[in-house]
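Self-study notes.
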Amino acid sequence: MTSKGVSHHDKLDRRYMAAALRLSRRNLGLTSTNPSVGTLIVRNDGSGPYIVGRGITASGGRPHAETVALAEAGELARGATAYVTLEPCAHHGRTPPCAEALVTAGIARVVGAASDPDPRVSGKGYAILRAAGLEVTEGVLAEEAACQMAGYMRRSVSKRPEVILKLALSSDGMIGRRGEGQVAITGDIARRQLHMLRAECDAILVGIGTALADNPELTVRLAGLKGRSPARIVLDGQARLPEDSKLVLSSGEVPLYVAVLPGADARRREALERLGIQILATEDYEGRMALPELLEDLAARGMSSVIVEGGAETAKAFIEEGLVDRICLYRGPEEIGEGGIDAPIDETRIPAGFHLVREENYGEDRYMEWVRAV
């Protein structure tokens, strides 16, 4: 043991699991209903450990990370250690479960991070490994892994996507100025970080007020990553989204969903549908759109993570209904002043149940992130 009570073995496990988690981030938002899992196959022939296989859940969700890593390792997997960021699957489809694949490949030890909440897997994957005589270590960087896969976890447990509320606040607590559309609050570094966040999610959601005032495109505007743009969703109860808006004009490249209320003009709905927009029929609850039911419908379409980006009223609605799971605040250095739109939330008004997980500086801007447990 080291002086702090952590063995070299434990430190090595944490080191390789951290690497597996970094690897798994590459396909966040690309793996459909499956989580983006990372797997490393590590061998030690007496001269120190080295990686012989790497795997990440493929785009679309198949093949799984373990299968990819074992294929790369080949015969070198026999007697090696597998580091997996999520408990290996245990249920049979057309291919055997990953737990059995690890056994067949001759893996001697499996180190896992997060447990899988899926009842077809939970505990069963590790049980298969132990029954076959493999050494199993669970829970290495489990909290970090669960946080990274929160969309999958939330969808598995609550049958809805993880909701990420993103707000950019001026130094005086405003998110914009009335009547002026989009107002730049943060700098270039913070904006690039936001686009990275978009690239890792399944959808971006705004209210019709933001869509009308800002005429946004809501895509990923980073070199080489435009293809990672998530689906766009507009809460548009009366189907008012203009046919010449950037959102509609780009719907052939990036999917666009418009959520409407039962009383929406049928002609407007039909006009949007003719342009290739997918209409989400929602329920009316006391004059407002029923958000919990909408989220259930999005989960049924395979969405695990949704960023709520636009509008104080939309943000407030998700907060008041207790539907926000992660809060991402960007705080800029400049004031907006008179005519500003008050932020519905700030770092001094975080709802109960959330805890701070990140604080960073992006140039002159400050970033803070809170999450609540699944």
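Second protein, same conventions, sequence then structure:
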Amino acid sequence: MTAGHVLIPVGESTTLRNTVRYAVERAVDAGEPTTLHFVFPLSSRGVVGDEQDDAAALLDRIELWVSEDLEETDDGVTVETTTIGADEYLFSPGDYADTIVDYAEEHGIGSLLLDPEYHPSGATPLLPALEWELRGSGLDVEEAPVERETRRSRLVRRSGFGQFLLLFGLAFGFYLFLAGTPTPYNLVTGGASAVVVAAALWHVSLTGPVRPRRLLGQFGRMCLYAPYLLYEIAVANVQIAYVVLHPSLPIDPEVIEFDADVWSTVPAATLANSITLTPGTLTVDVESRHFTIHTLTAGSRADLLDGALERAVRFVFYGRAAARRPTPDERRASESDPEPEPEAES
């Protein structure tokens, strides 16, 4: 992959996050200004299945991933995101290749990076044929060397010393927290226990690389989030106590569903547990980003869809830029807004 301009066709896949990380790392290592073009080919003129909305959400997510990987420094890397093929009907690998090559020629791009699990038409594995078509166009094509997800994921993973140190620190800190006092005996036994825990879990946890700067930032933001969550729990307790003690018992139970704007396991689990800890709401099910929540009152339902907790969780894991993204209510409003009717010809 050469520096300058790099084109990366994208779609939902199990390896997309790692492909984005690889593209950023290679661009930074190149040591010269590089523009990463992430493009989403629309397979059906952006009509079927609200594909344009899905594409916009995915491209927004990629921009945040890139900012995460750059760790708040630009390093000469810029990002362009867009959809392509909106005016065409893309079906075969040749159709997708023509659209991608047209974009590359229009923007003077000679390098193309492919996600190894990129399936432009959905579940059908077109990547080998698509890659063959693209190589025939004269582009410098590279497949990102990232691990593919297997039917049975490997239990043991390659890990660096950073993972070992982080596990040791977490285990040692937790031991001292339970012990209560840092006596010599507790320090020695805690250190020995932490070594055993870190050695046992070193290769079966912490799948990503340890980045101290990012971890410190997330830890600091988590320290701000904890009192905020406690405040929300206290307010919700008062509201539910009022409902329970009211003579008419004004409850209005309802199960609602929405797609949360979080993109990995730990943030989704944090949001789900925060919702459950807040009286009046209970997380019934979480499937990827899709949340099913039982709400006890109209007020708790409105507070949930107002998105304060979701924004706070995004702030913890993705930073301030992610906290400003639309709330569930705002996303629902944008989805329900009717498209403007074309003006009548005179």
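Instructor comment on the second fold: The beta strands are 5-9, 34-41, 77-84, 111-114, 140-143, 254-259, 281-287, 290-295.
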